[in-house]
Amino acid sequence: MKFAWIKTPETEWEEKKTLITTALESGIDHILDREDVERIHKLGNIKVIADDEDADIILVGVNGEGDGTFPLPSNLEDSKDLMAAKSLKRQGKPIAAYVEIKGKRYEELARLLGKTVDYLILVGKDWKIIPLENIIADLQGEDVKLVAAVADEKEAKTALETLEHGTDGVLIEPEDPSQIKKIAKLIEDIKMGYYELKPATITRLEPVGSGDRVCVDTCSIMDIGEGMLVGSYSQGLFLVHSESLESEYVESRPFRVNAGPVHAYVMTPDHKTKYLSELEAGDEVLVVDKDGKTRPAIVGRVKIEKRPLLLVEAEYEGMKLRTLLQNAETIRLVSEKGEPVSVSELKEGDKVLVYVEEAARHFGMAIKEAIIEK
Description:
Endonuclease - Pi-scei, Chain A, domain 1, alpha/beta, 7 helices, 38% strand, 2 domains, eight-stranded parallel barrel, TIM Barrel, six-stranded antiparallel barrel
């Protein structure tokens, strides 16, 4: 998942506090600050990055070789920054390395540090795309998060999208609170993805008795047309509509999707799935609308209760898809026209929206493997 960090400017505490508070309210909870670690911790559940033993992430490279304070050694393996990072790593501490890319040798230092540290902060006075491309390509197999220092949201967008994958995050020293909000909005927009939904034809509807079904209550309000991708087969998931419509029996609960039984898959961010029974408060699920646009939502509560179930079978280009849903008129799928349709009104021959993929899944991750689900 893409993220943003804030670097506090050298200013009075009250002004700095306003920026940090705005960041926290905008969903940004990592702050690079070398002077006020203790004060910042008092403002909330915030991770502080600093060259301080009380920091949550220890920073190396500032006042070292990474920022040019000391010249690079002839043999980069003898870098003091690198040795410090390795020492901290042996102590089990999370580390961020700070490197200003002033030339090829600084690129090489960044690559070496990237093989040791948890986060690699890349700083460029006049960013060019090629240095980022080189470092991203060389470190893509390493367990390190790349963070590009940027001046504004335009540079942030470039960094996050370079080489398709882009950097994992950006670091910005904001001029005012509005810039923080723009960066937060950019991160939110990038997290939104797209799933191509297809119309599948209903071929079977059959009550099958009772089972443990799961209601997923999120911390987000869903609109009409939004729901979650759920199904018994990982290769084909149904768009199950949220309870954002009122009925003569119950009021709307637009934060909820009555998703199906405990065994069913639900799509989560990063194109992974979980069993509904695995979800718990604090997890993230993917909200999907009738056009395939997505956004993450935090799970606030999961309710599992025994309810009568309905088997729903559909077909898309010869592929059979199945799921089970609570047998109640308030449970809805989405028609090929993008309209919510109650399972009590569905009939064979109707078309509903599904997501189909070629890859099977192993522990929730898409893989190329022959797996039969029926």
